[in-house]
Specification:
By secondary structure, the protein is α/β, with parallel strands linked by helices. It folds into two domains: about 240 residues, Isopropylmalate Dehydrogenase; about 120 residues, Isopropylmalate Dehydrogenase (3-Layer(aba) Sandwich), CATH 3.40.718.10. The protein is built from 13 helices and twelve strands. Strands 2-1-3-12-11-4-5-10-8-9 form a ten-stranded mixed sheet, sandwiched between helices. Strands 6-7 form a two-stranded antiparallel sheet. Helix 1 links the parallel strand 1 and strand 2. The chain binds 3-isopropylmalic acid and magnesium ion.
Length: about 375
């Protein structure tokens, strides 16, 4: 398969983790005989520094001309501490998601048995976690009208959702649930917010077309508690842009490190793949950032193009890195392996599988055994 991939490494550790993802995709290309073309483009603080714009038109065009976008990370402390700035890096990501029509942000949270001790939560609580968050990504409070009064003493963010915006992501979530454990939890704040009440009405109606899927509704405050108390009760979580942002970071505590969680953002015409983590400026250029979230995002990219064997091969190589303890220090404090060593190991271990590989890695423990 021929794929043109736009590469937006962005800020902080973005370029470092992206380099490892490209190594892995090169390895997939070679092993499975594909042809991937990578086109780099500026985004975020890096783009502001060079062009004054967090999403230069050239970058947007490269993304629109590509089959998929690989995204690194965005954000820089100099803007975080300056809330009066008119321009800031994250605007580049918001605009990119909007321009590409990426309305669904798909964020799986899975506990790898090899890493079960990583989580600060008890093994018995988290060990069977296998959930996926369907987060609406192109509307709601992030995109509503915003204003500040002249005296800068009052500010407003508006949250608007339309039935069609809710329904398009709800259908995706129900379809995903059909292929999984057939359960959806709609997370909202319908006891307070009008938008949440619209979500409920719309999703109740859609649920009638998916009789095999069980729908439950939870308020966000309760969902946050339930996710920590008993994460394995969840299969598909369907929610809006803000609640989904918060719950997915919470999911990283269950998985053991935010450096492990990948994501896909999809719309009718485009798809983008990015780690859930941010730009982690403290770790920049220290060769300590975990490349796994970014590498697993490439596995989601391959899956998106129906390259299932290739995607499994990337996941299998990641599992092998766990079993051999080739991990960055966020996973094992005593680890002496850096970002590029872990990436090299994974890229070197991407190989055709004999068909027996299952995503279930129950038998692998850190340094104990390998099935691969
Ligand atoms: C995410 C991030 C972004 C978001 C930030 C960087 C704007 O937190 O993708 O989860 O809130 O969407
Ligand atoms: Mg976030």
């Amino acid at each position: 398969m021929k794929l043109n991939i736009a590469v937006l490494a962005g800020d902080g550790i973005g370029p470092e983790v992206m380099a490892e993802s490209i190594k892995c995709l090169r390895s997939v290309e070679e092993t499975f005989g594909h042809s991937f073309t990578f086109r780099k483009a500026l985004v975020g603080a890096t783009a502001i520094d060079k062009t004054g714009n967090p999403l230069p038109e050239k970058t947007l065009q490269i993304c629109k001309d590509s089959d998929a976008v690989l995204f690194g990370a965005i954000g820089s402390p100099e803007y975080d501490v300056n809330p009066t700035s008119k321009v800031w890096p994250e605007q580049g990501l918001f605009r990119l998601r909007k321009e590409l029509g990426l309305f669904a942000n798909i964020r799986p949270v899975k506990v790898f048995p090899a890493l079960v001790k990583q989580s600060p939560l008890a093994k018995k609580v988290i060990q069977h976690t296998d959930l996926v968050i369907y987060r609406e990504l192109s509307s709601g409070i992030y995109y509503g009208d915003k204003s500040t009064n002249e005296a800068n003493t009052s500010a407003t963010d508006t949250c608007t959702y339309t039935e069609s915006e809710i329904s398009r992501i709800a259908h995706l979530a129900f379809k995903a649930a059909k292929g999984r454990r057939k359960k959806i939890a709609l997370v909202d704040k319908a006891n307070v917010l009008e938008t949440s009440r619209l979500w409920r009405r719309t999703v109740y109606t859609i649920a009638k077309s998916y009789p095999e899927v069980t729908l439950e509704c939870l308020f966000i405050d309760n969902a946050a508690v339930q996710m920590i108390l008993n994460p394995s009760q969840f299969d598909v979580i369907l929610t809006d842009i803000m609640f989904g942002d918060i719950l997915s970071d919470q999911g990283s505590v269950i998985a053991g490190s935010i450096g492990l969680l990948p994501s896909a953002s999809v719309g009718a015409d485009y798809a983008m793949f990015e780690p859930v983590h941010g730009s982690y400026p403290y770790a920049k250029d220290k060769n300590i950032a975990n490349p796994i979230a970014s590498i697993l995002s490439t596995a989601m990219l391959l899956q998106h193009f129906k390259l299932g064997e290739e995607s499994d091969a990337v996941v299998a190589a990641v599992l092998k890195s766990f079993s051999k303890k080739i991990v960055t220090p966020d996973i094992m404090g005593s680890s002496k392996y850096g970002t590029n060593y872990v990436g090299d190991f994974i890229a070197d271990n991407i190989m055709e599988l004999d068909g027996s590989f299952k995503m279930n890695d129950e038998n692998i423990g850190l340094g104990k055994s390998t099935i691969i």
